[in-house]
Every structure is written in structure tokens, then in C-alpha cells.
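FYI - complex with S-adenosylmethionine, inputs then prediction.
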Amino acid sequence: MTSFGPAYVALYDMLYSDKPYEAEAARLADLIRAESPDARRVVDYGTGTGRYAQLLSAHGFEVVGVEPNPHMLALARARDTTAQFLPLAERDQVEGSDVVCALFDVVSYMTDNSTLLDFLRWAHSRLPFHGLLIFDCWYGPAVQTQGPERRWKEVTQKDRHLLRLTSPEHRRDDCTVLIRHRVLSWERDRVLGDFTEEHLLRYFFAHELRLLLENAGFALSTLGTLQAPTTPPTVGNWSTLVTAHRR
Ligand SMILES: C[S@@+](CC[C@H](N)C(=O)[O-])C[C@H]1O[C@@H](n2cnc3c(N)ncnc32)[C@H](O)[C@@H]1O
């Protein structure tokens, strides 16, 4: 399966140019200060092209972004920011952190328990007692109630156009959704790209999140949304925001 290949990564920032990263990073900064008032160092795990890392750094945190995908990492490193970026294989260079976050579906890309537990245990190994873990993931009750749908998204920037057609295959027994993206890009009359990618994402339920977190040495604090971190999600919330503290 190809996920985040070079052609997709080259279009990633354009594809998500409508995502309100600034407002979300401001909410995250508020959440970090509320939960962990002395927090200074933040790891942004699965940092992608580094947008949250750049913004959290502008909010005054010392940020290290960790990313397995070399194409993503190259774009993150090209940002004008004091945040630092490391390949996943070098994550142990991070000696310690006050907060570890994984944002915008990173945890839903961890479709097997061993990958997720490896992440949680690594986060545990870097955090102090009561250190803060924040991540979002797809919320099972919402995905099962709403059901994934075929969608399309069009983005235009000057003469450049991008069209992404999304066809999901709901694998209910596995609590995953295989998403096939066909991406077309063109400039005026010239086709720049036409390719397909598959992304497998997992959704989670509250009991399993609690169990996975406990297994890795964390206590679940809140299950909510980025807009309202302490208000429990409903079947209307496709994504849930989880906060947990290291025990
Ligand atoms: C939707 S992107 C989000 C990127 C970034 N956090 C953002 O908000 O733009 C999902 C990211 O998860 C990363 N990812 C997937 N599996 C991962 C894993 N096992 N460990 C760390 N990162 C992973 C991908 O490389 C990709 O950068």
C-alpha cells in the first residue's frame, strides 16, 4: 500500500490549505498551559510537513517534530521555524519532553496494536511523572454511525488546481477504513499529475483507548474534541481528542 508517496506529499500543504492549523495550534497551546502550566518542551510525533510544530514553536514551546516519511521530513525542515525535526529512526535523540502530541490522525495510521504501543511506550520513556500526552484519532461510535462516504475535494491556488476523489472501504471486523484517493492536479490546460494512493486508518473506542494507555503506563484524563477537550465526544464527532498523563 502506498501512503504519503512523494507526489502526494508534494501536494499535502495545498490539499490542507483550508485546515485551520493556526486556530487549532492556539487551542492546543491553551490546553497544554491549562494541563501542564510549566511545560516547555513538546514533541510533535508524526509531524508531517511540520505545520503544528512551527505554530507551537511560535507559541513559545521548544518543539521537536518526529516523522517517519523522508519526503514529509524534508518539507518540515524547509520551514522557517525554530522547531527541530528528526526522522523517526532517530527519535531517541529526544532526551526528554514535557508534552508528547500526535496530531491529525497520526494515531489512526497506527493500525496495529504493536505500533501504537511502541509509540505510547516511547512517549512514556520521554515524559516525566504526570507528563502530558495529547493525540487525536477517529472515534469508533461516530465512524460506525455515520459510515465513511465517497467524497471529493477541490483546491485552487492561482492557476493550480487539485482534485482528490476519495473512495472508502469500511472494514468493520477490523475497525479500519481503507481509503483510496485518486489525485489529479493541473495548471491551466496542462495535467501535472494523476495518481492513486491507499491509506488505512483505524478507529477507536473509549474502553480500548483506556486499556492501551494503561498498558503503556498512562492514565486517560479526557476524551473530548479539540473545540471542547473535556466534553465527551458524540456520534457526531468523527475525531476525538485524547489527553492522558504518565503514571
Ligand atoms: C495526516 S498526516 C498528519 C501530519 C501532521 N501531524 C499534520 O498535522 O499535518 C499523518 C502523519 O502520520 C505519520 N505516521 C504514519 N504512521 C506513523 C507512525 N507509525 N509513527 C509516526 N508517524 C506516523 C505520517 O507519516 C504522516 O506524516
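The mean pLDDT is 97. Residues 40 and 61 are 5 Å apart (CA to CA).
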